[in-house]
């Protein structure tokens, strides 16, 4: 029997610098910094997204398909100490994520198109990725970089993140090289704020955003970066 996925609710907002300056101290007063963040409260996320020859993941997002998924390899601060193959499942406003740790040699195999080693791992998602790679010709599509400032709360497993300096890079570049050429995708001063929670959003957190009447956005860093790369 396949494990049942836990879905979390996700809200996204495209905010300005002044809105961030107003929101940040309020969020920091109610939630605590993510212990995985660095001394300045942030870390860098780099993700290599995969898509097929028909750009299915991109098209499904743009067309608002209710149930969809996309694959990526994610690293932090351009280091190889944590390399994760992930699949993000989406059902409307609800998300679920499955993850599989990779070694650097395994990542190199994957980036080179050889996924067969995943068939021997105890991971249904890994086997699905390999099956999709072989049947749909998945291939690296775009690299997405950004700086994340994360805050967490145990009640409701709430997570609020501010993602700034979102940048796109071509696939095929060294995932662990912080100096690869990249290209900004948001207007100066803009950033993406995300709120994720399981079950319920505590009222004191809900009030922060309800009082400010912030408009939600469906902005996808993957699609923004894929568009940017294709404009170059």
Query: Could you give a short account of the major beta sheet?
Result: 8 strands, antiparallel, barrel
Order of helices and strands: EHEEHEEEHHEEEEHH
What sort of overall outline do the alpha carbons produce when their principal axes are compared? globular
Sequence of strands across the biggest β-sheet: 1-6-5-4-3-7-8-10
- Overall mean pLDDT stands at 94
Count of separate DSSP helical elements: 6
Q: Strand share of the residues?
A: 35-45%
Tell me how many strands there are.
Answer: 10
Share of residues in helices: 25-40%
* pLDDT < 50 runs, ≥5 residues: none
> Rounded to an integer, what's the Rg over CA atoms?
18 Å
Structure classification: alpha+beta
Distance between the termini: 46 Å
Spell out the blueprint of helices and strands:
Blueprint: E1 8-15, H1 17-30, E2 32-33, E3 43-51, H2 56-62, E4 67-76, E5 83-91, E6 94-102, H3 104-111, H4 124-136, E7 139-153, E8 158-169, E9 183-184, E10 191-197, H5 203-212, H6 221-231
Antiparallel strand pairs: 1-6, 1-10, 2-7, 3-4, 3-7, 4-5, 5-6, 7-8, 8-9, 8-10
Mind explaining what this structure looks like?
With 232 residues, the chain is an alpha+beta fold. The N and C termini lie far apart (46 Å). The longest helix is centred in the N-terminal third of the chain and has 14 residues, at 17-30. The protein has helices at residues 17-30, 56-62, 104-111, 124-136, 203-212, 221-231; strands spanning 8-15, 32-33, 43-51, 67-76, 83-91, 94-102, 139-153, 158-169, 183-184, 191-197. The mean pLDDT is 94. It has an eight-stranded antiparallel barrel, surrounded by five helices. It contains six helices and ten strands; from the N terminus they run βαββαβββααββββαα.
């Amino acid at each position: 029997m396949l494990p049942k996925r836990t879905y979390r609710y996700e809200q996204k907002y495209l905010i300005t610098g002044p809105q961030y300056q107003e929101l940040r101290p309020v969020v920091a007063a109610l939630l605590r910094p993510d212990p995985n963040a660095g001394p300045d409260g942030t870390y860098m996320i780099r993700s290599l997204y995969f898509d097929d020859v028909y750009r299915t993941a991109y098209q499904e997002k743009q067309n608002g398909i209710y149930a969809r998924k996309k694959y990526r390899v994610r690293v932090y601060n351009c280091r190889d100490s944590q390399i994760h193959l992930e699949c993000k499942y989406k059902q409307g406003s609800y998300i679920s994520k499955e993850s599989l740790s990779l070694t650097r040699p395994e990542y190199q195999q994957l980036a080179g198109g050889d996924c067969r080693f995943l068939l021997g791992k105890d991971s249904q998602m890994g086997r699905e990725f390999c099956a999709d790679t072989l049947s749909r010709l998945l291939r690296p599509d775009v690299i997405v970089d950004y700086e994340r400032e994360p805050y967490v709360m145990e009640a409701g497993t709430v997570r609020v993140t501010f993602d700034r300096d979102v940048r796109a890079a071509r696939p095929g570049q060294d995932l662990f090289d912080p100096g690869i050429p990249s290209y900004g995708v948001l207007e100066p001063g803009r950033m993406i704020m995300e709120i994720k929670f399981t079950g319920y959003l505590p009222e004191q957190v809900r009030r922060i955003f309800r009082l400010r009447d912030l408009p939600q956005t469906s902005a996808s860093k993957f699609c923004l970066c894929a568009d940017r790369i294709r404009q170059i």
